[in-house]
Amino acid sequence: MAAVAAAATSGSSSAGDESKTGPLFDDMFDVLRVNPEGKKFEKVNRLVCKGTTLDVDMIVDIASEVYNLGKDERFSLRIASTLRLDGRKDDDAFDQSGRETLLDQYDYGMCGRVFQYDIKGSKVALMVSFGGLLMKLEGERQHLAAIELDARVYALFRKAKSAA
């Protein structure tokens, strides 16, 4: 079962419908550094990551007691506007039906809101808060254009299978 961190924020999402757009963002990342400025919180790691396919940099806080990633590990990240497999918008209440969701396909997930979106030429930097855990994504505008300011989003993580 997937681990989930951060409480869902209330309100409706301004992001597009997943059934029409697919994921808002999807790439593999390599962890370059863990806690580069020292460990600030006992149960949180700050990861500095680099996209392997798209030229996107990411700094993300992870609840390390729940989900741990180390230096040189690879993982996939999907940013989605809904957890529903049919792509329809989520209700604002927790779904207790037990039906399968997108989260079941991942190891760890967080729900949050995009609170900052800066455009500088062809580059975009956006910030997402997941109940206090933060994520910063920076890259070419074309790769991050589907993510909108004030959108409720899910960040879904899955460790890459190692080649044995």
TrEMBL record:
Origin superkingdom: Eukaryota
Subcellular location: Nucleus
A GO molecular-function descriptor: DNA-directed RNA polymerase activity
One Pfam family in the UniProt entry: RNA_pol_Rpb8
Gene Ontology CC, one term: RNA polymerase III complex
Subcellular location, principal: nucleus
InterPro entries referenced in this protein's UniProt entry, alphabetically: NA-bd_OB-fold, RPABC3
Membrane-crossing residue ranges in chain numbering: none
Key words of the record: Nucleus
The family this protein is said to belong to: Belongs to the eukaryotic RPB8 RNA polymerase subunit family.
Protein name from the UniProt record: DNA-directed RNA polymerases I, II, and III subunit RPABC3
Protein source organism: Cafeteria roenbergensis
Lineage: Eukaryota, Sar, Stramenopiles, Bigyra, Opalozoa
